[in-house]
């Protein structure tokens, strides 16, 4: 893509040149009009002056002497010595009633007959030269006074005006374009500095940008870059935690699986081989649960939502999740009860997150419930929040273990657990602006309550 400086300069220079062209055309048209008006006025004035001279009361001989003196003076004019070159391009003639030429300049054109069109006109002489003429008819004295000017005089004057006007405009435009180029470069200097700073950063650097002083137009860009860097840092942090957790937790199960596999290869009794095989299957199941929990944890950790979730029926979502868990609970001789209040509305939450949280809470309750035990799931509304609680009839928890239950990989003595269930539930609660609470029931059992307030 073209650079910002080049695009801006191209637009400005194009507009400037277009404006200059329009102004120059207007000046040319206006100059032609004004020059024509001035020269036409001079032609008419010269004709009036000649008329006044020719009307002077004189005897016939005196008039003849006057005409002869006129012609002699006009024939002696030498523009190159004591006159002007334009003298030969301006002419006049005077005819009497008999169409005889009384007075004329040496440069006067030749006509077959005196012109008949009074006032201003454009004529062509016998030499095919174009003239702008003014004919004044004096009927009292029987005179025809013709004053003319060659067109090339006016064209030359217009050309001079155009040259004297256009060249300064062109030179000024070039100088202005150079100044605009420098001005745009100075204006874009902060952007260039920001680009240079970004190029100079180390590839793995995720530190926020701190460019000062910074124009107000670039502050949103810096803020957006810093947000993006923070998000990248958060994502990379989650990935590092996931890799570290997986490496830490997978090392021991894999080593145990290897031991059981080696025991199967060693000679022994059928009972020993069967026991090793059962241990191997149990270890594979635990490792699978651990991997699933790790993946779930990496997915649920707080992160920026790409788009807000759609409103869902919370009651139906919870009921569908419990329907999926019911066969598994029945296989463990457990009974499930779902209690929901009547004031549950449509809420904008992620149904997947609710399903994951409910699965973890019900699974934990099932692990510690006695045979034929009862698990109760309640969905209620409390002021501006919703509460999803799971109650069991198990032994409850010790007070000293309460805080540690939310630590990663702490399974409270359960070798088959991954120790991530409550950690995942707490991450979901924080994601929706709530919390998770654990409290012992009377006389026995545990109540786990998930509260969420942002929806």
What order do the helices and strands come in, and which of them pair?
Layout lengths: L3 H51 L5 H16 L3 H4 L7 E6 L5 E4 L14 E6 L5 E9 L4 E8 H37 L1 H12 L18 H47 L4 H31 L10 E3 H18 L3 E6 L5 E3 L2 H18 L5 E9 L2 E7 L29 H11 L3 E6 L5 E7 L3
Parallel strand pairs: 7-9
Antiparallel strand pairs: 1-2, 1-5, 3-4, 4-5, 6-8, 9-10, 10-12, 11-12
Helix pairs in contact: 1-4, 6-7, 7-10, 8-9, 9-10
Ranges where pLDDT stays below 50 over 5 or more residues in a row are none
Cα-based radius of gyration, to the nearest Å = 53 Å
Order of helices and strands: HHHEEEEEHHHHEHEEHEEHEE
* Rounded mean pLDDT score: 77
Instruction: Report the portion of residues in β strands.
Output: 15-25%
Gross morphology? rod-shaped
First-residue to last-residue Cα separation = 43 Å
CATH class of the largest domain: Alpha Beta
| Beta strands, count | 12
């Amino acid at each position: 893509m073209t650079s910002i400086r080049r695009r801006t300069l191209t637009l400005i220079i194009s507009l400037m040149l277009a404006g200059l062209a329009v102004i120059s055309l207007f000046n040319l048209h206006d100059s032609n009009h004004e020059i024509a008006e001035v020269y036409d006025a001079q032609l008419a004035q010269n004709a009036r002056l000649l008329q006044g001279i020719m009307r002077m009361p004189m005897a016939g001989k005196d008039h003849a002497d006057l005409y002869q003196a006129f012609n002699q003076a006009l024939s002696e004019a030498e523009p190159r010595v004591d006159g002007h070159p334009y003298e030969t391009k301006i002419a006049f003639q005077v005819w009497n009633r008999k169409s005889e030429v009384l007075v004329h300049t040496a440069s006067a054109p030749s006509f077959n007959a005196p012109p008949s069109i009074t006032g201003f006109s454009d004529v062509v002489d016998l030499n095919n030269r174009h003239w702008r003429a003014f004919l004044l008819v004096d009927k009292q004295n029987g005179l025809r006074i013709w004053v003319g000017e060659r067109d090339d005089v006016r064209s030359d004057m217009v050309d001079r005006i155009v040259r004297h006007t256009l060249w300064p405009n062109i030179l000024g435009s070039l100088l202005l374009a150079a100044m605009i180029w420098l001005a745009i470069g100075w204006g874009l200097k902060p952007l260039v500095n920001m680009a240079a700073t970004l190029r100079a950063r180390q590839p793995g650097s995720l530190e926020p940008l701190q460019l000062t002083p910074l124009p107000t137009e670039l502050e949103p860009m810096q803020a957006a870059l810093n947000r993006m860097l923070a998000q990248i840092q958060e994502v990379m942090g989650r990935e590092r935690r996931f890799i570290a957790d997986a490496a830490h937790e997978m090392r021991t199960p894999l080593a145990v699986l290897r031991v059981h596999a080696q025991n199967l290869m060693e000679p022994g009794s059928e009972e020993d081989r069967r026991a090793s095989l059962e241990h191997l299957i149990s270890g594979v199941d635990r490792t699978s649960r651990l991997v699933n929990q790790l993946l779930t944890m990496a997915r649920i950790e707080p992160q920026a939502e790409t788009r807000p979730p759609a409103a869902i029926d919370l009651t139906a979502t919870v009921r569908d999740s419990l329907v999926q868990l019911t066969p598994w609970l029945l296989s463990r001789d457990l009974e499930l009860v779902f209690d929901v209040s009547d004031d549950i509305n449509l809420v904008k939450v992620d149904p997947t997150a609710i399903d994951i949280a409910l699965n973890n809470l019900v699974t934990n309750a099932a692990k510690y419930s006695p045979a034929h035990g009862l698990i109760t799931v309640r969905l209620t509304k409390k002021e501006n929040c919703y509460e999803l609680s799971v109650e069991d009839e198990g032994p409850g928890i010790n007070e000293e273990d309460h805080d540690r239950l939310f630590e990663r990989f702490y399974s409270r003595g359960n070798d088959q657990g991954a120790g991530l269930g409550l950690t995942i539930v707490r991450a979901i609660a924080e994601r929706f602006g709530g919390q998770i609470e654990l409290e012992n029931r009377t006389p026995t059992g545990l109540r786990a309550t998930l509260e969420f307030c942002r929806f």
